[in-house]
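Hey, quick one: can you model this chain's 3D structure?
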Amino acid sequence: AIFSAISASRSASARGSRILGEIGRPQAIEPLIATLDDGQREVRDSAAAALTQIGPPAIDLLLAALGDEREPIRTGAARVLGRLGWKPDRGEAAARYWVIQREWTRA
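Sure thing. Here's the predicted structure for all 107 residues.
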């Protein structure tokens, strides 16, 4: 029921994202990442805030999202990783992160 709130109206979607972040269950991570591609900025921002609230349990799926074919998901994932204090190393995820951040010399 709560997951279906994400696809309803803009305010309901934003509210649903906030609730998912408060619950903090790992099952919420994938739907929240998918919501980073929503057409409404308020919904995307709420999903990013919820993922930030969930914290470290979201990192692995956020790293995978750096390779998503959809640009809003890649940039949203990079933004959340930055908020979580994730520090890129020298791997593939780090290269993707720096390219998304337009830090060409670090990639």
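One thing worth noting: DSSP finds six helices and no strands in the chain.
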